[in-house]
Amino acid sequence: xxxxLSSEVAxxxxxxxxxxxxxxxxxxxxxxxxxxxxFVAAYVMxxxxxxxxxxxxxxxxxxxxPLTFLLNGFLLKYINIRKxxxxxxxxxxxxxxxxxxLKSLDLVGIGIAGMIxxxxxxxxxxxxxxxxLAITNDSNRNYYYGLxxxxxxxxxxxxxxxxxWFIESRGSGEGVKNAYRIVTGVVFLITILASVVxxxxxxxxxxxxxxxxxxxxxxxxxxxxxxxxxxxxxGFLVTAPAMLIMLLLGKEGALGTAQSIGAVLAAIIMxxxxxxxxxxxxxxxxAAGLILFTAGxxxxxxxxxxxxxxxxxxxxxxxxxxxxxxxxxxxFRVIDIVSKIEKRSEFAYILNxxxxxxAGRFLGAATFLILxxxxxxxxxxxxxxxxxxxxxxxxxxxxxxxxxxxxxxxPQDPAEQSPLETEIAEKVIQPQA
Length: 433
What we know:
Keywords: Membrane, Transmembrane, Transmembrane helix. This protein has about 425 residues and is mainly alpha-helical. It has helices at about 1-15, 15-30, 35-50, 50-75, 80-100, 105-135, 140-170, 175-200, 220-235, 240-250, 250-260, 265-275, 280-305, 305-340, 345-375, 375-390, 395-410, 420-430.
């Protein structure tokens, strides 16, 4: 075992400097992601007892993200990417501070806190995605995302259960509010540490080109369809576990425990897959994640009790990283291809991709809100996830078409091409002027 671990550490050290720094930066920031994703929603749920407010909060976050992507593209002309990346991480703590300072959780206050969190996520994800694209290639992206997901999932073991039981141990009323304030203070300190690690890099800004386009290659338009399907679940899936557990179990301790169960197994699976799988395996990984997600949603809809929630979260813990492990390399490979064909900055596609995600997120959140207001919040929590999971199964067919078309335009692994294939691929990707 020690020999195996030593070889894995050696393999990591062989990666480029910026590769390692990006992984370490995201590793430190990953310590606060469970707090942002889970316990802020639990805070809104606890203090309002209204699932629709949680979804509205999430929708304001997702509205702020694409606007910040646009702002980020403009600011990259004048500000180093490390500063913008760090600002995104630190703004997440600022949003939590605003939320905790609200005397009453009205829609205006929730909206302001949500927009600030949207700014945070926008700066964070816009720059993180560009940097991940810039420092990796198609041959090591499975390893990169497998490694990241491995650490994220391990962190998901300790952080939710620790914070959940810490909050619950403070009793009720003012004690719980003070516990949330303490957690917010720790989050702020961790975001500062993540920023310090980030500044050890030599990250550079993208080439300054036009970022906003409305006409794209057909392959990219298919990727936008896939992004919209991915966004469907993101519309409220981030906060759905918190809402379900607070509704059916009622305590942050149970929320933390449920998030931690099965995370070790998921972490091991992600690391092994990232290490041993090839680009050709991505569609299988993607399909497995979507099927597991649908199965979890079916358990939740059929049972709609504590057992159903636990089964849903266990399957989601494995399904979500499986989908991400396959999705991001597929997205980045398409960007590699179409950016060369259209001779545009990679950041233009990262920006446009967010528009596709937002369309899906809006539709997903709207599905929940319509069911909640027209029928009941219980029906929405019970069936909206299943509806979206079934719709997302269509992503498998879309991903297959994207991979097939991408391989036709640019063969999958240049190292395995013949000289003639390489010459043809170069002519296709970089047509003569």
